Amino acid sequence: MSAEPVDLILTANGPGEIAGWLFPVVTEIRRRLQERPIPGLRLIAWAPPCNFASGRELPALEALGPWDGLYGPDDMWAVLLRSRWPAGYRPARRGLVLFLGGDLFYAAWVARRLGYAAMAYTEGRARWLWAYERFFVPNEAAARKAMQMGAPAQRVEVVGDLVVDAVAARSSRAPEPVADGSVTVGLFAGSRDFEIRWVLPMFIEAAAIIRRRLGRPIRVVAVVSPFASQTALEQALGAVPDEEARAVEWVREDGWDGAARGAAMARCDVAITVPGTVTAELGALGVPTITVLPLHRPDLIPLEGLIGRLGDLPGVGPRLKAAFVRRVAHRVGPLAIPSRRAGRAIGPELVGEIGPEAIAVQAVALLQDEARRRAVGVALRQAMGPKGAAARIVDRVWARLGLSEAMAS
């Protein structure tokens, strides 16, 4: 006799949240199910609409399968607007929705339509309080933020940072020994097409300046996300001299789990990156990072909520969004995630219409000061904290669904 189905729906969209939040949670779930299968448990991934999405999230989720169901933004709209479930999906009578990225609204309303419990992992955002039984957060500061937004203290739980678990699953901080005294500079220009087109050429030019000024052997490694399109990469490379592009070692992800990226990160003495999950990954490894927020095309920077849709308005939309971004960009506080955790900029952070020269100056200063790099690395690891968040979240999910008792029986 088959067990009654139980649905566990994981929602996530956007490159950083899939790589940094969903990946470690689903890795922990699959580890447990391999050790002790749970009859009837159906694991479902759902990518809701998201201003930060690259458009290539569904292949990433598919590669992290197998899933008992895999659905995208169009399926979410069909549920919300027409109460139509995806073809072939018959909801179980019991289940839980676990928010791991995107907009809290979508996971909340899917849970309500299904009559399921809902839990969320966030950086302290706490919206749609009627829907979520528990908000998992990385640290005490995020917990305070969630409570300030109205979440009752008993529904907020500090579990640690999921990105630390993601990094631990991909790599270890064990740089390859080098006999020539060389250093490695990593370039992480982002995963969205506009970042590749506009930011990567600037990073490559900065690396060329670093190479000329450093006075010691240097390896430059550019990591290209699988979320980036080949067209955007070709356009970026067309904007830099061939000799500069040839001087870079290219790492193109060969899988959606980020293994190649993790190995490249572990080799870096200094990294140059845009804001986002990658700053947390580098921080967990203790890699000194220069975080750059270029404002050459502020109308292309993704934002949450209605402001994020402002640039889509015909005519004046892009100009209004650009003006808003320029006005608030210098007031957002630290850019890198570890710096936000610490409440101060741990490594160099540059905002504005930055050129390659300004980036190179900061990189050379770090590369010439080994003691400073070590101190920055220690501070980054401390800010990110220890691993274990994924296990704590899955413990709570298992308990809420009554799966702990099923496993023990």
Instruction: Going across the biggest sheet, name each strand in turn.
Output: 3-2-1-4-5-6-7
Q: Alpha-carbon distance between the termini?
A: 17 Å
Task: Indicate the multimeric state.
Answer: single chain
How many strands, which pairing sense, and closed or not: the largest β-sheet? 7 strands, parallel
The shape, in one word, is globular
Overall mean pLDDT: 85
What is the helix tally? 18
The chain-level structural class is: alpha/beta
Unreliable parts? none
Radius of gyration: 22 Å
Amount of helix: 40-55%
Strand content: 15-25%
DSSP E strands, number: 13
Q: Mind sketching the topology for me?
A:
Blueprint (H helix, E strand, L loop, with lengths): L5 E6 L3 H21 L5 E6 L10 H7 L5 E3 L1 H10 L11 E6 L4 H11 L2 E5 L12 E4 L2 H9 L7 E3 L3 H9 L12 E6 L4 H22 L3 E7 L5 H8 L4 H5 L2 E4 L6 H8 L3 E4 L3 H9 L3 E6 L10 H5 L7 H13 L7 H6 L6 E4 L3 H12 L2 H15 L4 H13 L1 H6 L1
Parallel strand pairs: 1-2, 1-4, 2-3, 4-5, 5-6, 6-7, 8-9, 8-11, 9-10, 11-12, 12-13
Helix pairs in contact: 1-6, 1-17, 6-11, 7-8, 7-15, 11-16
Task: Write a concise keyword list for the protein shown above.
single chain; 409 residues; alpha/beta; six-stranded parallel sheet; globular
What features would you describe in this structure?
The protein starts with 5 loop residues before the first strand and ends with a helix. Strands 3-2-1-4-5-6-7 form a seven-stranded parallel β-sheet, sandwiched between helices. The chain has 18 helices and 13 strands. Helix 11 (277-285) links the parallel strand 11 (270-273) and strand 12. It has helices spanning 15-35, 57-63, 73-82, 104-114, 140-148, 162-170, 193-214, 230-237, 242-246, 259-266, 277-285, 305-309, 317-329, 337-342, 356-367, 370-384, 389-401, 403-408, and strands at 6-11, 41-46, 69-71, 94-99, 117-121, 134-137, 156-158, 183-188, 218-224, 249-252, 270-273, 289-294, 349-352. The protein is 46% helix and 16% strand.
